[in-house]
Amino acid sequence: MLELFPPGFRVERRSTNGIALNVCYDATPAPVRPPLLLLHGFPQTHAIWHKVAERLRSKFMLVIPDLRGYGDSAKPQSAPDHSAYSKRTMALDVLTLMRELGHEEFFVCGHDRGARVGHRLALDAPDAVRALAVLDIVPTRHIYAHADKEFGLGYYHWFFLAAPNGIPERLLGAEPEFWVRTRMDARHAGGRRPDEAAVREYVRCFADPAAIAASCADYRAAAGVDLEHDEADAVAGNRVRCPLLALWGRSSFVGRTYDVLDVWRQYADQVTGHAVASDHYVPEEAPDEVLAALRPFLR
Known about the structure:
Blueprint: E1 9-16, E2 19-26, E3 35-39, H1 50-56, E4 61-65, H2 87-100, E5 106-111, H3 113-124, E6 129-135, H4 140-145, H5 149-154, H6 156-161, H7 167-174, H8 176-185, H9 196-206, H10 209-222, H11 225-236, E7 240-249, H12 253-257, H13 260-264, E8 268-276, H14 282-285, H15 287-297
Parallel strand pairs: 3-4, 3-5, 5-6, 6-7, 7-8
Antiparallel strand pairs: 1-2, 2-4
Helix pairs in contact: 1-15, 2-3, 7-10, 8-9
């Protein structure tokens, strides 16, 4: 949504990995800068990065896509195993995009689902990812292995969205705006509220029945094929080798529940990070703290 971004940013559709991705990027002529791929989460779009884009573009060449199934990107139908929405497939989307843009190596920063895509990308294409920042997550495999009552209540949407037989699609389709607004209104304690223009954009995109179906496929993949890929990596000893920065909301479920750095050190070799004054939607709630952490880390 260009209205949220400063002048010089453009949005276009790019064909990559057999689908069309909606991509926001900085088209302002500038000296050569290292590329930075920014990946959003659920139920957002690339618009979640609008509060940090202006101040990042002086140092980085920004590429900010809508993930497949989200925003204005393509929303292919899901196969029974939901592999079309596996993090491996979504990571290949953005890897192919970056290579087609001429970026063989690049930095990655992801929030929520985008951070899970970034995690998979760092595992599957270690030579491409120079450094990875993950915002308000711990690895999917760890979450499911340690799920308990608190997780089921705090992150009930993981189970609701993964439910079979079209149940979440039917219910969410009846009140998509209610779903998006209640998700965001309940999870910004300690930080700024998201801009109304951004929320309207999230509602517009999520109200598409194809987007609802894609989101459900994303979460079903997380509970199935993604775990298979994660378990195979664990057995093979495959870890994130590049530097990894973990930021999380001090008021978020992740921050309240996990020793975030300790968990990530079970999955990555070079881990740093800290909590910021926010709940879950870190790039919108605490942009100044995100920028203060990213600038020295991405080098």
